[in-house]
Write the structure tokens for this entry.
Amino acid sequence: MSQAEFMQTVRAVDLQVDRTDLLLQALTMQAQHEGFVSKLRQKRLAALSLRSEEEEEAERARIDEENLLADLRMSGIDPKDFEASIDRLDKDLLAMGGRRWLGGRGSDTSPQG
């Protein structure tokens, strides 16, 4: 093998190594991209699920309120009078040293110890 043939073989091998390196880099970048896309998809699905749960909860609360108003009306109780009574009771409890928990606007809705 002449020196020229040897150099040509070395260049061909170098080109093949360069192509292999580029291919490995491309495969690595593709895997990273797929991982990023997968994580992004999972985050979006989690956000959508959370939003759906919040929307469901808001819908349940709206339905509960509508049912309560309907029950009050069927019982002959004016909903505004009922709300005013609850607010007065809540204020009376606060005045006695209790904590606000009867469902008044902006209050904690769970009993406090």
Notes: The two ends are 94 Å apart (CA to CA). The CA atoms of residues 43 and 49 lie 10 Å apart. The chain has two helices and no strands. Helices lie at 3-74, 79-95.
